[in-house]
Amino acid sequence: MRAESGADWKGDSHPRQEGPVDLRLAGPALAAWATAALVLDVPAAWSLGAAGVCLVVGVALLRVGSARYQAPVAAVLLCVAASAVSAGLHGADVRRGPVPEVARRFGTAAVEVELTGDPWLSKPRVRGDRAAPVGVLARGEVRRVGEEGVGGGARTRSPVLLVVDADVPAPGVRGGGPGARAGWLRLLPSTRLRLTGRLAPPTTTGDRTAAVLRVRSWPPPEIASAPSTPQRLAGRLRAGLRQATEELHPDARALLPGLVVGDTSRITPDLDDAFKATDLAHTLAVSGSNLTILLALLIGPPGMAGLAERRGVAPVLGLSLRTTALLAGALTLAFVIVCRPDPSVLRAAACGAVALLALATGRRRSLVPALATAVLLLVLYDPWLSRSYGFVLSVLATGALLLLAPRWSEALLRRGVPARLAEGLAAAAAAQAACAPVVAVLSARVSLVAVPCNLLVELAVAPATVLGFAALAAAPVSMPSAKALAWCAGWPAGWIATVARTGAAQPGAGVDWPGSRPGALLLATVTVALVLLGRRLIRHPWWCGALALLLLLVVVRPAPLTRAVTGWPPAGWRFAMCDVGQGDATVLSAGPGTAVVVDAGPDPAPVDRCLRELGVTRIPLVVLTHFHADHVGGLSGVLRGRSVAAIETTGFAEPPDQADSVRREAATRHIPLTTAAAGEERRVGPLTWRVLWPPADAPPVPDGPNDASITLLVQTAGLRLLLLGDLEPPAQRELLRTPEAAGLARVDVLKVAHHGSAYQDPDLLHLTAPRLALISCGTGNPYGHPAPSTVAALRSTGATVLRTDRDGALALTGRGGPHGGMKVMRD
């Protein structure tokens, strides 16, 4: 008999007990998943016919013969039949009824709609020089629809996406604007609304949306019935958590409600980008880990739930196993209600239950069947999950933690890695390896800092979650206690945000990757190859250390090393034009790590990346030539992680929404705003400049913001650069009449106005006669920038013309004067 004290023996309930993986339910679950994904778009009659065939064959296999393969094949066929029936009926529900019919005609209807989720703000988008107004989006189900009014309308149950523009008043709120948006965002799921809107077919195919409902402002929307009691209770709890976190640091204030209950309403675009760049976005959404942490606190360590020595809160309170199980079930139900019973939360609860099974039993052999059962039941309950990327990521991450992480952790332990570090590193690496191909499809990018960032935040997630839920529960009883708990939770939450921002700020935080299925397949192949290579390399610590150092250098990209390898940025650069797409962002060097930035482009990410590559950390002045979105939309990217002393703008505050956005951004970061005027002269280090336009004494009343653009004549190292903003011919001709026009002859560099559009004054081009003309424009832009006529006119003056859509980012080096040499480098 085997000695119980043998070093290789482990009890059946030991958390590291390994055995053959039970895959009997994996086949039926995957077959049901694939069937649902394929059948949702198939006519119901076809899906029911296919289900009937599979059912007959499956039953026949069970009744006839006893071969080993018959039972597994029959199980697959029966699950396929059930999935085909469920998916066929769900798909038919979306396509039938009066709502899709009205949507095909782009008709207007009076409807009664029930909200099925929390409303959220649309992402700000820049279209040309304008920013699309931020509206409110919400998921709902149309319950009644009619042309003449709701009272006589037809009953239905069609899922729709509500689109609420900024000018649409919220129920009970007069007028549009920010007040209306706030009113819409306060609406709770299960609220029923009466409203009128235009129905249109969904913009994307294959999702659970019968139509897009664009809400009209007249007649004003009104509430038909209040939300349900559980949703009102959940709403009060969520509002209490927001109030309790009101005084925290902005990052912690934004992150904690998202980490606890999935409330991401305070997450800023730059923080969201940081979490996506580091593959930490799962912490901003409700996931099974939230529930697992709470249940682990209740039940105790893995494998001890059924033992006399069990730990956790339950035995401290003297609760029996049966009572503990009931309490765990009640906690799970409360979790689903507070976090909203939408598909993502149900998915999280199911995956959390699988992790709970691991905690309670410690038997890994039973976990794969449990995961397969959860997948099968969820797909049968809601076939639309089969097409959800979030569902795919949840299943892949859970499967990796169950199958890969234990083996990788054991391998690290055998080589002397401390137990906690081995488990954390194995879990982060396994989840990243499994999920990276899917994430690449969504973001067209592969994060190189995901594993260390997930490892660094792992220890902070549990205390932030537990303390956050404690603040949530305490808020209705004692707000001071809730604020104290939220303050404690703010420390780990702030650490998580700091890790995300620091990781995303690294120059080599990620690499671009094809965002397609072939790209995902290629990444999966590369991942498998790296895993196989890693099994060999782990036996050679020196090689592992060398490769880790190489990866660190790739991520950090020290400026001297990067310059030696890529040549970018060039040493001693004086002026750089960032490639920000259809917009403007130029950088004037004022010393090591210091630069004056003129315009910010349409999007924060490209200008932030450009400044990081240039090594800019201090900005004495940001000049925003005018308030069009393609020049100011990326301002938050310029300010991200940098010391900025002041922002200078034009005095013509149009468009007003973009001007207000700049003011809010400056006020939030306590950066002073100034107004530029002709005649102003400044100097920073070797950099000097003079404002040529707009006039100080007689502010222009232009046709638009372009003619109010700040125009700068810059001198650095003997080079003369003219930055025209977006000036159009009327203002260009006025500029030629000013006393400053005499200093414009024969400049070294011209930043061509308005992205090289056809609207240029030929006299100004001939006067300036630049040696180098630079044009910032986007690839394939719909405006035809730069115009061929403008490029030809510039070349006729002897200028070399370069453009960011073809040449990428550009940097100027050298000195001016008769003995200087000017050189342009391309990224």
Give an overview of the whole structure:
- With about 850 residues, the protein is α/β, with parallel strands linked by helices.
- It is built from 28 helices and 28 strands.
- An 8-stranded mixed beta sheet has the order 19-18-16-14-13-12-27-28, with no helix packed on it. A 7-stranded mixed beta sheet has the order 20-21-22-23-24-25-26.
- Helix 1 runs parallel beside helix 13, helix 6 (about 230-245) packs across helix 17 (about 480-505) and helix 14 (about 390-415) runs antiparallel to helix 15 (about 420-445).
Rg (C-alpha, Å):
31 Å
How confident is the prediction overall: mean pLDDT?
Answer: 84
Structural class: alpha/beta
Strand order, biggest sheet? 19-18-16-14-13-12-27-28
Helical run tally: 28
The dominant shape is: globular
- Ends apart, CA distance between termini: 71 Å
Strand content: 15-25%
Total DSSP E strands: 28
Oligomer type? single chain
| Main sheet characteristics | 8 strands, mixed
Which spans of ≥5 residues are poorly predicted at pLDDT below 50?
1-17
Helix content: 40-55%
Pick out its properties.
single chain; 827 residues; alpha/beta; eight-stranded mixed beta sheet; seven-stranded mixed beta sheet; 28 helices; 28 strands; 47% helix; globular; disordered N terminus
Summarize the structure.
This protein is α/β, with parallel strands linked by helices and 827 residues long. Helix content is 47%, strand content 16%. The N and C termini lie far apart (71 Å).
